[in-house]
Amino acid sequence: MTFGASLLAKLDFTVAIQHTPDRADRRKWVKSVVKRMRAERADIAIDVVEDKKREGCWPTYLRCLKAVSSASHHLVLQDDVTVCKDFLACVGEIIHVRPRSLISLYTSSRQVYAARRRGDSWIQDSSVAGLALIWPRELIGEFIRWQEDHIAQAFPGDDLRVSMWLIKTSKPIFATVPSLAQHLGSEASVVGLNARSKVAACYIGDKRSAIGIDWSQGLRFPLKDRTQILVESWRYYRNGRPHQAQA
Asked: What gap in Å lies between CA 55 and CA 158, rounded to an integer?
């Protein structure tokens, strides 16, 4: 049994997929990624959280987070994702290396190129791209409570809520190098935020496995991305209760 497979058997993590089911492309992508994960581990807990009423990104993402049970970790995927070979086993290796950190399996940061030149397997990202995030269970409740106190209810962003929480609480988020997930919907956004640049700076590929990557490289002192989130997003931030949406 490989290192990754042995960890997969031992670690307790669940999966939730944020899904807009009225889009044919997204139904196809979800079916494909679920099939790949089931082929790897038939009993993995996968909850496809559907936005049937088009409530928006944030309400659906919140339901994804709440889909965690007593698992130690919770992997939240968006529905326009493809993943590498041996994906779940690779997730097991990564959780073992950084068990208490929020981890992104996808990043478009240009710092990836510098990290690769150094031989590093990590960067410290500056904000969240929520395509594929590994959440330690204890951080989920902390984040949900924080955003209830500090982010206006009407703010539609899911990634940006998480980013603001990380910034204001000085928590890091680390991204794997290479990315183990790729963004298929960069030009098929549900909310119209299309951009060709919204793809992984370095994706390992659907047919390649990340098992065996030395995740200790760059673990202690990773390069840091310096990208800032949009200034206008901060108008939804409050120092504390009460808060209401602004017109």
From this structure: 12
- 149 to 5, 26, 152, 162, 218: CA distances (angstroms): 41, 33, 8, 13, 35
Count other C-beta atoms under 10 Å from residue 38's C-beta: 13
Full pLDDT tens readout for the chain, 247 residues = 344 555 555 658 999 999 999 989 999 999 999 999 999 999 999 999 999 999 999 999 999 999 998 899 999 999 999 999 999 999 999 999 999 999 999 999 999 999 999 999 999 999 998 899 999 999 999 999 999 999 999 999 999 999 999 999 999 999 999 999 999 965 444 444 444 567 999 999 999 999 999 999 999 999 999 998 989 999 999 986 544 443 3
User: Is residue 130 within 8 Å of residue 161, measured between CB atoms?
Assistant: no
